[in-house]
Design brief:
This protein is an alpha/beta fold. Helices cover 39% and strands 17% of the residues. The chain contains nine helices and nine strands. The chain has helices spanning 23-26, 52-66, 84-94, 108-117, 138-147, 168-184, 201-207, 218-228, 250-269; strands spanning 39-45, 71-78, 98-103, 123-127, 152-156, 163-165, 196-200, 233-237, 239-241. The strands form two sheets. The chain has a seven-stranded mixed beta sheet with strand order 3-2-1-4-7-5-8, with helices on both faces. Helix 2 (52-66) links the parallel strand 1 and strand 2. The longest helix is centred in the last third of the chain and has 20 residues, at 250-269.
């Protein structure tokens, strides 16, 4: 397992005398300087047997050779009907630092919830199995969590400095959806749905019990819940290349997300 911490500024919260601590203060303890924080990267899967070995091996090689913090990988399968669970277990038995959990019900959000809530790491993260996001963004993603600057960090394909290659249809739908989320739900980030996020485990334990969605809207709801709880959310520009083999069904996913937006909007006004 790769070990060694980058030189990151440590700025723990320092509440003023007599001020009631905000939620953000409660989930931002001073980092333990005696050891570098551990990072658990979850890879949610659903019917990915044909690509899983190549993708997890690539992620494992990157972490082993280039990532400077202690890490582990968890493959979280959610309701696959192919050989993905068996492939995931074989990878867990052959690659050091890799484990697998298999869930019977489909849902990316549900898989992330199960893996993150059972994690003993200091920071939990995830990347989509297609690895469309350049892995060089992983250290910038977790750096504000390591330093105590933020509680949640999200990769963004729409932030200044990001570079994205995808078709015009996906680009239009993504920009339209995220504009809606920012206006209606007052999202603090430009890109709610990029499959590349991390948070301090203390923030995960606070937020996950109140995030209801177990599907694709999980990401958006997580960010909105974090904002409403007063947690600082950090947005990291990423390089992202669309996967032509993506299993995301654009129309049905968009419809599910719109229903999620309506649910949160109604609850905010009630």
């Amino acid at each position: 397992m790769a070990i060694g911490a980058p030189q990151l500024p440590v700025r723990p919260p320092n509440p003023l005398p007599g001020r009631t601590p905000r939620p953000a203060d409660l989930v931002r303890p001073a980092p333990d300087l005696a050891r570098p924080p551990t990072i658990e990267i979850v890879v949610p899967t659903h019917d990915e047997a044909h690509v899983l070995v190549a993708r997890v091996t690539r992620l494992h090689r990157y972490l082993r050779e280039q990532f400077p913090l202690p890490w582990r990988i968890t493959i979280a399968d959610n309701g696959s009907s192919d050989d993905t669970p068996a492939v995931a277990r074989r990878l867990a038995n052959t690659l050091p630092g890799v484990s697998a959990i298999v869930l019977s019900d489909a849902g990316r959000g549900g898989a992330l919830r199960a893996a993150w809530m059972s994690s003993t790491a200091d920071i939990v993260a995830y990347t989509d199995v297609d690895l469309s996001t350049d892995l060089d963004a992983l250290l910038p993603l977790v750096a504000p969590l390591v330093s105590g600057h933020s509680a949640v960090a999200v990769g963004s394909r729409l932030a200044p400095g990001s570079r994205t290659h995808r078709g015009p249809r996906r680009e239009l739908i993504s920009r339209g959806y995220n504009a809606l989320v920012r206006v209606v739900l007052r999202s603090p980030v430009r890109d709610a749905q990029c499959g590349f996020k991390a948070m301090r485990s203390s923030a995960a334990r606070q937020l996950l019990p109140i995030v209801r969605d177990d599907g694709w809207f999980f990401d958006t709801e997580l960010i909105v819940r974090a904002r409403r709880a007063g947690l600082r959310v950090f947005e990291v520009p990423v390089d992202w290349i669309d996967d032509p083999d993506s299993r995301v069904r654009i129309v049905s996913t968009a419809w599910h997300d719109l229903k999620g937006v309506a649910r949160l909007a109604v609850r905010e006004r009630s």
